[in-house]
Amino acid sequence: MTPAAPPALSQPGGLAPRTHWPAVLVAVACGVAVGMNVGKVPLALPALRAELGLSLVQAGWVSSMLNTLAVVAALGFGLAAGHIGALRMVLAGLGLSATASLLALRVQPDGLGLLLATRFVEGAGFLAVAVAGPALVSAAAAAADRRFALSVWSTYMPAGAGLAMALSPLLLPTTGWRSLWALTSAVLVAAAVAAWWQRRWYASAAAGSPTSGQTSGHPATPVATLAVLRQPLPWLLSLGFGLWATQHFALIVWLPTMLKEQRGLSTGWVALLTCVMLLACVPGNLLGGALVQRGMARGRLLALAHTATGLCSLAFFLHGLPDGPRYAACVACSFVGGVIPAAVMSSSAVLARSPRQINALQGLFMQGSQLGQFAGTPLIAAMVAASGRWSSAGWVSASAALVGVVLGLVVWRIERSDGAAR
Question: Which of 123, 125, 198, 347 stands the most exposed, by the fewest C-beta atoms within 10 Å?
Fold first, then answer.
């Protein structure tokens, strides 16, 4: 039995005449599956350290190894996806991640090298799906729905990481970290099967497939693909995304530490409170998509969101406030900030003229996000260590937000002057 063929393509360039939401959601599910590889580690680190005898530094490398490749190669992966084809790239990424998660089950107490190697391969799989998945979403979505569909895609990271964190307290105390890795591998395989089942809806995202602005006789060239990166907007949006990542990952990394060390909460409560904060980003993503779909300028969204997240970050790290308002500020920061990735990722719907350009843009956006995460977390750690006060982290986040406000205003001005990226 084979999946039903999509209706005849009737729009110029081979675009879907209507949105096939099951195919869109399957593409998002592929992102959620690789996002679980991000969320499965933080709460499993104590178990990994106890079983494998890892030092704090070694545990830190296990946590960050997945992001190492993305810091330097996200844009390259995006360009490669245009030549390989988005579906092939996504399936390869899911396969790599699933295989690496299974290989990690063989790690022994002296097997730090193997564990790091599997995390590196998981990172390659994560990156492949992250940069190619949006092209699948775009292929299955009609033009009128494409901006919102790409905003739905932006939920993949908080949803996947939050799901893994929610499952951690259920699995870690009884079956250990290996069961979490095995479950993640099974989810990755299931996502790959679902994507293959929906493959006919992703046909226009194949390598060399025509889209708007192209004819079937003139496939995109590397020069045409890179042309989209000559505009200032993609770079400004990528930088704005990175500034939000600096703030968001500061919360993800430091909230569990503060809850455990300063408040002495159990692992279950730490997992629950961190998971709620992380998942609050998902409705923020959807809100951002709805606002973009209604025509709100991305620059305006970025400026307003960075203003709110900067104030929330200061409130969260302010010791004078009671715990309740501080945690509420943390959740609010995640929720409001969720509009930023939605605004940025959905811009490829209007900036790109081909699937290859979508892949290139998403690679650039991923590069900005990973650089913000990579630079922000150790910067905050250094500030806290130097001052001895957690409030220093709030000033780092607020400073990133302030720069984000300025960038948002610049983007808004460009949008008003030439009508781009609306």
Answer: 198
For residue 148, the SS3 value is helix
56 residue type, one letter: L
DSSP string, 88-113: HHHHHHHHHHHHHHHHGGG--TT-HH
Residue type, 360: A
d(CA 397, CA 413): 24
Q: pLDDT tens digits for 345-358?
A: 888 888 888 778 88
* Residue 413: both structure tokens together: 């001005």
* pTM of the complete model beyond 0.85: no
Write the burial class of residue 266 (CB in 10 Å: 0-12 exposed, 13-18 middle, 19+ buried).
exposed
For residues 163 and 34, the answer to whether their CB atoms sit within 8 Å is: no
- Are 240 and 402 in contact, with CB atoms under 8 Å apart? no
Architecture of the domain delimited by 19-418: Up-down Bundle (1.20)
Give CA 261 to chain center in angstroms: 28
Among candidates 318, 335, 279, which has minimal Cα distance to 397?
A: 318
- How many Cβ atoms from other residues are within 10 Å of residue 421's Cβ? 24
Distances (CA, A) of 267 to 43, 86, 125, 194, 311: 8, 39, 29, 34, 29
When mean pLDDT is compared over 114-128, 222-236, 253-267, the highest value belongs to 114-128
Residue 144 and residue 166: Cα distance in Å, rounded?
A: 35
- Condensed to tens digits (0 to 9), the pLDDT of residues 309-359 reads 999 988 888 777 888 898 999 999 999 999 999 999 888 888 888 778 888
Closest CA to 328 of 235, 251, 260, 390: 251
Rounded Cα distance, 81 and 89, in Å: 6
List, in order, residues 6 or more apart from 341 with CB less than 8 Å away.
154, 157, 241, 244, 285, 288, 369
Pair of tokens at residue 369: 């996000």
Contact 122, 101 (CB under 8 A): yes
Structure tokens at 397: 């986040």
**Contacts with 123 (C-beta within 8 Å, 6 or more apart), sequence order:** 65, 66, 67, 68, 69, 70
pLDDT range class, residue 218, cuts 50, 70, 90: very low
